[in-house]
């Protein structure tokens, strides 16, 4: 029997108080996600249950019980407190998927500070803009990433401390740097947890838009109410599960469902901190006896590409529930997963801004391969007409995916950017920025984004960020960045570049430009193709028409461009 039982019944009788009651929370109480994910689970008698089973490169292993998590996070909290971190200070986690990332996240929350996880593959410029915007005071990192922090530290006056979690004590530290080693510290048994309330800020995740710098999505501790129940009903997590979320906590899936969801339910999760390989992944599932697996379409398509033979070499019979998020999950992938794993990958749709799953397929629900499923109980979703912002009445008609604000894990604002936040609403609807249609049975079908943001392998890339990096190179006069189709990643980044007089396009110049921007961007945002052009299509007011370039790449009809030229 699945945790959700009957979807229809749940929708009918739904109230978020179901989640509050299960968590023992009443309005006005203190609410600290850190406490819920560690101390409370120990108090419930699961202190000796494994919380985290970790495997890293070179066969490195580690595991932590819920009591270990409680102690380690207390220890991190106290360390941060001693160096002066106060509630609501932003503390950045710039780490690979090592245990300190998961433990540090909870440790930061326990003292009421705001966790700002950033993907460790970011280049120094990507790091810089995000730390500057958040006015981050502390960054927790590893030796291998500290060079990037050093490069930008002087440009961020608020950044007081750089904590290195794996320093061997050999190389000298620079001003502001300090060593923290969980192994060396005495575990802290008692910690005064900061009395955060429902609306106290908790997590700051950065996401890319079409224009402007990345936006810091501010979440609050009350998000737990949504993350707990969606993890329970959609991911169907049960007490004896071994759960594997393949997402990196530098992105929202890796925190909402790679830390908070499973741990608030007291569920064991495992983490593999090695690069992708089908063989390594199947081996991991077999070895850890993974039962619930939450992954992403690009990974699933890569597994498909690796073929079925490698699957036959492994015993994957432990798997009982599979789910996916982050990009369109094509029907072929859903059908393939049923064939090879005996289960469909169930598609779930949500965003950094929504904090938790919004549209989804549930265990037990009829699967329509290619559809994102239906709204989670308690979520009022619609597809709106793009002009009137009124719900589209006809089934199958395409419109904007929108949600009625008020669900617990909804973002509270964009950090230092209230105007952009306000622009996300129309007619009392939160506008997701995506397009979809709803069929007669209420299933949602994804169509595409309503902006120029590129979703490559589940990672949002702002064309603006890539164009800005390109423009900083001395040979680049103009650039436009669009998505280009790709078999595995669905979309990859393509750059159109106009070269300045005096420079000639050549392989050598291309290499120079790419090396130049590689330092600024994350590897995911790197163009997979660069085309040199004499000029770029522009509107009458001089704005580059990315849409025309995009249409060309996708072999779409461009139609009458005179209206486009008039666009602002
Ligand atoms: O365009 C949608 C796509 O990913 C965007 C959100 O990205 P991000 O904020 O990075 O969060 C990703 C993980 C929660 C959405 O606006 N997206 C997400 N899930 C799906 C999807 N596109 C199609 N199908 C999905 N299931």
Structure, explained:
- This protein is of the alpha/beta class and 568 residues long.
- It has 2 domains: 7-436, 3-Layer(aba) Sandwich (Rossmann fold); 454-554, ANL, C-terminal domain (GMP Synthetase, Chain A, domain 3, 2-Layer Sandwich).
- 30% of the residues lie in helices and 23% in strands.
- The protein is built from 19 helices and 27 strands.
- Strands 2-1-11-10-12-13-14-15-16 form a 9-stranded mixed beta sheet, sandwiched between helices. The chain has a 5-stranded parallel beta sheet with strand order 4-3-5-6-7, covered by helices on one side.
- Helix 2 packs across helix 9 (223-233) and helix 9 packs across helix 10.
- The chain is globular and about 65 Å long.
- It starts with 6 loop residues before the first helix and ends with a helix.
- Bound molecules: adenosine-5'-monophosphate-propyl ester.
- Residues 207, 251-253, 325-329, 347-352, 372, 432-434, 446, 449, 455, 460 line the site of adenosine-5'-monophosphate-propyl ester.
Name the descriptors.
GMP Synthetase, Chain A, domain 3, Rossmann fold, 30% helix, alpha/beta, 568 residues, binds adenosine-5'-monophosphate-propyl ester
Mean pLDDT: 95
What structural class should be given to the helix and strand makeup?
A: alpha/beta
Largest sheet: 9 strands, mixed
Strand order of the largest sheet: 2-1-11-10-12-13-14-15-16
- First-residue to last-residue Cα separation: 54 Å
> What CATH architecture of the largest domain do you see?
3-Layer(aba) Sandwich
- Overall number of structural domains: 2
Tally of separate helices: 19
Cofactors, ions and other ligands in the entry: adenosine-5'-monophosphate-propyl ester
Give the radius of gyration: 23 Å
Q: Tell me the name of the CATH class of the largest domain.
A: Alpha Beta
**Backbone shape:** globular
Range of helix content: 25-40%
Per the CATH scheme, the topology name of the largest domain is: Rossmann fold
**Extended strand count:** 27
CATH superfamily of the largest domain: ANL, N-terminal domain
Q: Detail the poorly predicted runs.
A: none
Range of strand content: 15-25%
């Amino acid at each position: 029997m699945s945790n959700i039982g009957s979807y229809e019944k749940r929708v009918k009788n739904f109230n978020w108080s179901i989640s509050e009651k299960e968590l023992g929370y009443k309005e006005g109480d203190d609410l600290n996600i850190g406490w819920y994910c560690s101390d409370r689970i120990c108090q419930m008698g699961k202190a000796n249950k494994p919380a985290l089973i970790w495997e890293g490169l070179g066969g490195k292993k580690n595991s932590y019980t819920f009591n270990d998590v409680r102690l380690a996070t207390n220890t991190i909290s106290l360390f941060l407190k001693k160096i002066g971190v106060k509630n609501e200070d932003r503390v950045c986690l710039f780490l690979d998927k090592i245990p300190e990332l998961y433990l540090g996240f909870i440790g930061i929350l326990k003292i009421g500070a705001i966790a700002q996880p950033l993907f460790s593959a970011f280049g120094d410029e990507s790091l810089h803009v995000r730390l500057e915007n958040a006015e981050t005071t502390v960054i927790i990192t590893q030796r291998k990433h500290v060079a990037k922090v050093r490069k930008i530290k002087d440009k961020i006056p608020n950044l007081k401390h750089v904590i290195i979690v794996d320093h061997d004590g050999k190389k000298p530290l620079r001003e502001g740097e300090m060593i923290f080693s969980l192994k060396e510290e005495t575990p802290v048994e008692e910690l005064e947890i900061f009395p955060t309330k429902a609306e106290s800020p908790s997590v700051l995740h950065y996401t890319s838009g079409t224009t402007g710098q990345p936006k810091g999505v501010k979440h609050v501790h009350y998000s737990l109410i949504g993350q707990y129940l969606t993890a329970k009903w959609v991911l169907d997590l049960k007490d004896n599960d071994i759960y594997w979320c393949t997402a990196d906590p530098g992105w929202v899936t890796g925190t909402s469902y790679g830390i908070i969801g499973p741990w608030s339910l007291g569920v064991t999760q495992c983490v593999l901190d090695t690069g992708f390989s089908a063989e390594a992944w199947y081996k991991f599932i077999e070895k850890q006896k993974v039962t619930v697996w939450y992954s992403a379409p690009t990974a699933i398509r890569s597994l498909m590409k690796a073929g079925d033979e490698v699957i036959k070499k492994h015993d994957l019979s432990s798997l009982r529930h599979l789910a996916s998020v982050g990009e369109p999950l094509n029907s072929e992938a859903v059908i393939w997963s049923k064939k090879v794993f005996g289960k469909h990958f169930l598609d779930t749709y949500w965003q950094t801004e929504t904090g938790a799953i919004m549209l989804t397929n549930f265990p037990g629900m009829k699967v329509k391969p290619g559809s994102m499923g239906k709204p989670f109980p308690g979520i009022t979703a619609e597809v709106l007409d793009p002009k009137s912002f009124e719900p589209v009445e006809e089934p199958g008609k395409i419109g904007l995916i929108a949600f009625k604000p008020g669900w617990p894990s909804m973002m509270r604002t964009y950090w230092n950017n209230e105007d952009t936040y306000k622009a996300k609403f129309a007619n009392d609807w939160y506008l997701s920025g995506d397009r979809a249609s709803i069929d007669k049975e209420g299933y949602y079908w994804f169509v595409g984004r309503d902006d120029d943001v590129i979703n490559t392998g589940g990672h949002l890339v702002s064309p603006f960020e890539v164009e800005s990096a390109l423009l900083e190179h001395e040979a680049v006069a103009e650039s436009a960045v669009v998505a280009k189709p790709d078999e595995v990643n669905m979309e990859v980044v393509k750059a159109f570049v106009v070269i300045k007089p005096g420079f000639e396009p050549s392989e050598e110049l291309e290499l120079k430009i790419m090396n130049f921007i590689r330092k600024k961007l994350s590897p995911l945002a790197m163009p997979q193709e660069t085309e040199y052009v004499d000029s770029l299509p522009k509107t009458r007011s001089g704005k580059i028409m990315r849409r025309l370039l995009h249409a060309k790449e996708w072999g779409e009809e461009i139609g009458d461009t005179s209206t486009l030229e008039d666009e602002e």
